[in-house]
Amino acid sequence: MTGAPRIMTVTRLLIANRGEIAIRIARAAADMGLPAVAVYSEDDAGALHPRMADEARPLPGQGAAAYLDANAVIAAAKAAGCDAIHPGYGFLAERGDFARGCAEAGLTFIGPNIAHLELFGDKARARAAAVAADVPVIRGLDHAVSLDEARSFFAALRGGAMIIKAVAGGGGRGTRAVLTAEEVEPAYQRCQSEAKTAFGRDDVYVEEFIPRARHIEVQILGDRAGHVTHLGERECSVQRRFQKVVEIAPAPALDDGLRRDIIDAAMRFARSVGYTRACPQLPCLSGATCESL
């Protein structure tokens, strides 16, 4: 039928990640009877995640740089006879160029489509899209900023606090709160360094920092026919270094009216960009990565 969605069949999966998330994906694949292939850097040869998969392939290099080598990951998938790649979260999970490379290599990328990866993988663009969808956002700059721009934004807050965030990626990496003018430059440089190491890009942007704010997320699902729904909200306020530690669903002690407003904003945002597949983190703008097979 012309225009009908193409059904993709996965017969062998490469897990393009390490540690806990790679183990979770390997277990899910095993439950589905789906053969899984792990990859590992030189210094992860003795790690647990390669032993959890049916096969393991080495990547050249050490540390995060090995898992950020898109060409090496795709080559490993092809060499292992895989027809799909699951990126987990972090590393290559939010890079549209990686998803595009997978498609060009004939591999199914398990996650959002390329256009949405490019949008939500760039948090500054995602902020701008949220504003266009009439979703409330805190004060911030909707583009990668220079050090001088970060200083000027902090000064404009007139005694308020600022947070610097990596444009690409999430998980608390490349994120620092700034409370004084003296902290701007070292925090900016540290965020750039962390972002470059974790995500392959050193771009950062800035927002107003609200201490002791609650972190609420909405799970969104969308299909190719334009239908968007939600699976409720979750509380993610228990964090360490801006990385979620505990998630609770539904969010406790949340006013019913505010709950509806948050969900409505997330749904409005998803519809405005024609979102498809799974989006676990709207409207917090901390990423839009499919976390399950």
Short overview:
With 293 residues, the chain is α/β, with parallel strands linked by helices.
3D architecture notes:
The protein is globular. The chain has a 5-stranded parallel beta sheet, sandwiched between helices. A 4-stranded antiparallel beta sheet has the order 11-10-9-12. Strands 7-6-8 form a 3-stranded antiparallel beta sheet, covered by helices on one side. The protein has 3 domains: 13-110, 3-Layer(aba) Sandwich (Rossmann fold), CATH 3.40.50; 147-209, ATP-grasp fold, A domain (Dna Ligase, domain 1, 2-Layer Sandwich), CATH 3.30.1490.20; 212-282, D-amino Acid Aminotransferase, Chain A, domain 1, CATH 3.30.470.20. The chain starts with 12 loop residues before the first strand and ends in an 11-residue tail after the last strand. α8 crosses α9 (184-199). It has helices at residues 19-31, 49-52, 63-67, 70-79, 96-104, 114-120, 123-132, 147-156, 184-199, 256-272, and strands at 13-15, 36-40, 55-58, 84-86, 108-109, 161-166, 176-178, 204-209, 216-222, 228-240, 243-248, 277-282. It is built from 10 helices and 12 strands. It has 293 residues and is of the alpha/beta class.
